[in-house]
């Protein structure tokens, strides 16, 4: 039977008990915990960077959509390669490839997939008639860091598909770490959404915040814990130490490249930001935001660092 990434429903019927939550935060052998430890410093850096940039982006729909389109290309690429690999006939694969296919099948969680959600958001912001029309019009990125990122992903993920696990862990759990805060901030942002006669801002904003929503489940925390559990059970004893080290290294590379992509969008719009807010106001606002970001990051990390 061919693999269908959307087949069936995805339900989480109960909350996890404390005993069912794995891996434990102090489990030094868990791959997820090893990734978190290795990327802790660079994770803080991109959190602060995005916190600062997003304040300006939420005042300008052009900057905001440029920001999320950068992440759209990343999600689309690794999810496409993932589904494509799972759809391959196991009889055509080597034994090692079949083992990796089985691991990736165990970790695959349709409720987390973000490609279609991002296409809906970007179709709204770019005023295309449908997600399909958007996907066709914006098939390839034009900014250099985004082009470089996609080339890198195609090269490494086709050669070593187990590195998909680095993207799944890093990007999906990042959405849980800051997604709810971002969803609320985006939905409340004035000037980000058009005025539609007869509709409230909340109704209009629902068309541009799909990235941060998981409609296939009722409990987002249970979804996060379920993914962590799948990840741990699938990777604990099925990957070699060399493969695990490569996944950790690729996770660090993802953060570095995301920082470069965010910086590129920021540089492209620097003149517009200064003209809109004024240099002194922008500089003062940035100082205030650094203080606020540090405080918010501290609260976030207390709650979410032990993914």
How would you describe this protein?
It is a single chain. By secondary structure, this protein is mainly alpha-helical. It has 13 helices and no strands. It has helices at 31-38, 40-57, 61-86, 95-107, 115-125, 131-137, 144-159, 164-188, 201-205, 220-235, 241-268, 270-277, 279-304. Helix 3 packs parallel to helix 7 (144-159), helix 3 (61-86) runs antiparallel to helix 11 (241-268) and helix 4 (95-107) packs antiparallel against helix 10. The longest helix is centred in the last third of the chain and has 28 residues, at 241-268.
* Sheet of most strands: none
List how many beta strands DSSP finds.
0
CATH class equals Mainly Alpha
Shape: globular
Q: Radius of gyration in whole Å, from Cα? A: 20 Å
Low-confidence stretches: 279-292
Q: Mean pLDDT score, rounded?
A: 80
Broad structural category: mainly alpha
Count helical runs.
13
Provide the CATH topology: Heme Oxygenase, Chain A
SS strand fraction: under 5%
Number of domains: 1
CATH architecture field: Up-down Bundle
CATH superfamily: Heme oxygenase-like
What is the element string, with H for helices and E for strands? HHHHHHHHHHHHH
Protein name: Heme oxygenase
GO molecular function, one term: heme oxygenase (decyclizing) activity
Binding site for heme b: 43
Pfam family, one: Heme_oxygenase
Summarize the structure.
The chain is mainly alpha-helical and 307 residues long. The protein is 67% helix and 0% strand. The protein has a single domain, classed as Heme Oxygenase, Chain A, CATH 1.20.910.10.
